[in-house]
Every structure is written in structure tokens, then in C-alpha cells.
Design goal:
It is a single chain. The chain is mostly helical and about 90 residues long. It has a domain of about 60 residues. The chain has 5 helices and no strands. The radius of gyration is 22 Å and the shape is elongated.
């Protein structure tokens, strides 16, 4: 029993530690929430997870989904919600 435990522990220690990978949507969520909280360290970390193009895509997708969710919640058009969030006059 103890020998099996030792072999197991040696096997665990010998395996290289794999760095966790992040997907574009996770990077975008962390990046945007860090921007909202003005957390520069977290912004830099999330920006390093994916390419700038991928992060841009993820942020854009997050913005679209957020505007759509707010529009449904408020029973308004996505354009009206987006303009309100940006402080623009209604059209």
C-alpha cells in the first residue's frame, strides 16, 4: 500500500506543471470587469491570455450581449440602451 502511494506521489511530482489556458470569452470577461474596477494588474493579465484581435472580438461580443440583455430587461431597443449607456441623446 505504501509503495503504491510512493509511486503515485513520485509520478505526480515528475509530471510537468501545465499552465492553464484561457479562452477568448474568459479573457474578455476578466478584462472588462477589471476595466470597470480600474484594476490595471488584472487588465494586463487578461490582455496577455489571448491575442489583441481575439480580445477585441471577445469584448465586442460581451458588449453586444450586455446591451441585448439590458434592452430586454428595460423593454427598450438595443440602440436606445447603447446610447443611454454612452450618455448620448436619444434619436
Amino acid at each position: 500500500m505504501i509503495d503504491r502511494l510512493r509511486k503515485f506521489l513520485r509520478g505526480q511530482a515528475a509530471e510537468p506543471v501545465q499552465k492553464r489556458t484561457h479562452n477568448v470569452f474568459e479573457a474578455a470577461a476578466v478584462y472588462v470587469s477589471a476595466c470597470a474596477e480600474d484594476d490595471q494588474d488584472q487588465i494586463d493579465e487578461a490582455a496577455a491570455w489571448v491575442s489583441p484581435e481575439a480580445l477585441s472580438f471577445g469584448v465586442r461580443e460581451l458588449a453586444c450581449r450586455a446591451v441585448i440583455a439590458l434592452a430586454r430587461e428595460r423593454d427598450e431597443s438595443p440602440e436606445a440602451v447603447a446610447r443611454t449607456l454612452l450618455g448620448l441623446p436619444a434619436t
